[in-house]
Amino acid sequence: MSGYWTGILTILSINVIMAYAIFLPVATGQLNLGGAGFQALGAYTAAFLSAVAGQSAWATIPAAMAVGGVVSMAIAFPLLRTRGVYLVLATFAFAEVVAGAILNTSELGGAMGLSVPEYLDYPVPIIAAILVTLFVFYLMATRFGLTMRACHDDDVVTDLLGVSIRGVRVAAFAIGGALAGLAGALYAHTFSFVEIQSFNASLSIYVLLYVLLGGTQSALGPLFGAAFFTLLPEVLRAVLPQVKGALAGLFGIQGALSPPDESWRFVILGVLTVLMMMYRSEGLITRTLIERLKPGRHPASATVEEASA
Amino acid sequence: MLLLQQLLNGVMLGSVYVTVAVAFTLTIGVLNFLNFTIPTLFMLSGMGAWALTKWGLPLVHTPPFPWPMALLFAIVVTICASLVVERFTFRYMKTKYGDATEHAIPLVSSLGFLLIIENLMRIGYGTEAQRIAAFDWDNTITVGGLFLRVPQLVSLLLALLLVAGLNWVLKHSRIGRGLRAIAENPDAANILGVDSRRLVPVIFTLTGVLCGLAGILFAINYGEVSPTMGEDIGSKAIAGMVIGGLGSIWGAVLGGLIIGIAEMLTIHFFGADTVQVAVWGLLLIALFVRPQGLLGHHSIGKGKL
């Protein structure tokens, strides 16, 4: 495989893991706008252990997941007392505090960043992404996954049926935090360098948007969202010059046009987000769509089976 | 004396936050909608003013505007953008039959608009920070050994005037009564004859005016604009709004000033790098200890959105 494709697959794998990290809280009905903060925790844990303590990746990656999971669990208790707008603001604020704290810790390189000695090649993130995907699919198929969906759809009724909503939400938040830590550790080991500027508010926004675009009703949604968002710039790189050339021909513009800009990807993501929220706010992949695409199964009988399972 | 000067600077800095925070608190208080396009509208106004004075209108190639006209035009552009945002985000608010995340539809599409406007600006005018030529009335006066920059003083007074005016409109005018009725209970307001479809654009026009004004005041004060200038100001305005209390206009004023002063004092005592930790730590503490904010009403934002 050429370096171009391995690079794309690495980024895709990290994005998929990150998407699932945000998907789990969202699937229980909590928007997490602090993804970058949790990813930064994992990335810096791995980078610090690898660069300063000289640990191998077999130790740094589990440590990063543990830090991500424990920290998100610790803050989940006060954080999840808040709801709606307050929760969005609190997660956002948490990410900013993490960024600020790292920026002011000289042991972590501050604004200079940290270089990571141990390099992991592309098979590692790909295998990790596949494992995470399988894990989330499994999780959503268990009874716990069912209660997560129930918390999302109607928390009052779920509470009345004897489910500890807070417990489910804290657990989902903590597992999400651990996955974000994993994504961060993989980022540190494949890019060989971490700096806090890469974990900014925009990253949190992108991750949340492509999870919501993909759809939060099933575990397929984030996979599609992350894949689409990662592959879009590559498609644009091929298509945009031709579109620009055609436009130039149409308007009779002479001379060289400016090269296609990375910014177009975000404009397209923004336009798609707005359109999606207008016409299909539940995201691209929904449970109804999955049922309809399954051959030989009637949606009505499927819901009966699910209910009795 | 130095400390007093820093306090004064904090108040001046806070006045920019105040204007943006009031825009945030207005949409949350009345419409229950966290409008994430507000920082970009602020940026649009500042960058717009710069682009107009330097190049004139895009696409039609007019000559550069003289600056008073450019400033006015930038505010108009911002108001128009704000109304476009209303058309494509808030109209799709569904809260009645929704599940736990469905209420966030306008919030998410406003994040989409944030990406659209900011990146179109980058494509059009580049990503670098641009200097605005200083205006000739940019001078410093000294009062009792304290330095005061006139544009900053003007913007503080303008911000306070605007907020006081807004407060009066909300309290005493027919439009304001309608808006407060919507904030209280949209359905009951509609039954009693408040036309929310005509009043909602008023909120977004006000948002445009506030952000537009804040943007050009920032551009005049600091002489520099960039496509990312909204991010920092926007997030600090959010922090100010939360500390003051969601939905409370005077709370937003107080919170914005507190953030401005906290920022200057942190720089004074600990250096510029710790500002982020101080501001966001303050916000996190406020969220945990007193979620309704200093002057906020405890019912807003609780249970609803």
UniProtKB/TrEMBL annotation, chain A:
GO cellular component: plasma membrane
InterPro entries registered for this protein in UniProt: ABC_transp_permease, LivM-like
Location(s) in or outside the cell: Cell membrane
Alphabetized CDD domains for the sequence: TM_PBP1_LivM_like
Membrane topology reported for the UniProt record: Multi-pass membrane protein
GO molecular function, one term: branched-chain amino acid transmembrane transporter activity
Keyword Cell membrane: yes
Transmembrane segments annotated in the record for this chain: 6-24, 31-51, 57-77, 84-102, 122-141, 170-188, 208-232
UniProt entry keywords in alphabetical sequence: Cell membrane, Membrane, Transmembrane, Transmembrane helix
Keyword field contains Coiled coil: no
Protein name, as recorded: Branched-chain amino acid ABC transporter permease
Automatic annotation (TrEMBL), chain B:
Family annotation (PANTHER family): BRANCHED-CHAIN AMINO ACID TRANSPORT SYSTEM PERMEASE PROTEIN LIVH (PTHR11795), HIGH-AFFINITY BRANCHED-CHAIN AMINO ACID TRANSPORT SYSTEM PERMEASE PROTEIN LIVH (PTHR11795:SF371)
One Gene Ontology cellular component: plasma membrane
Name used for this protein in its record: Branched-chain amino acid ABC transporter permease
Lineage of the species this protein comes from: Bacteria, Pseudomonadati, Pseudomonadota, Alphaproteobacteria, Hyphomicrobiales
Keyword Membrane: yes
UniProt membrane topology term: Multi-pass membrane protein
The species this protein was found in: Rhizobium straminoryzae
Transmembrane segments: 6-26, 33-53, 65-85, 105-126, 146-170, 199-220, 240-262, 269-289
Top-level taxon in the UniProt lineage: Bacteria
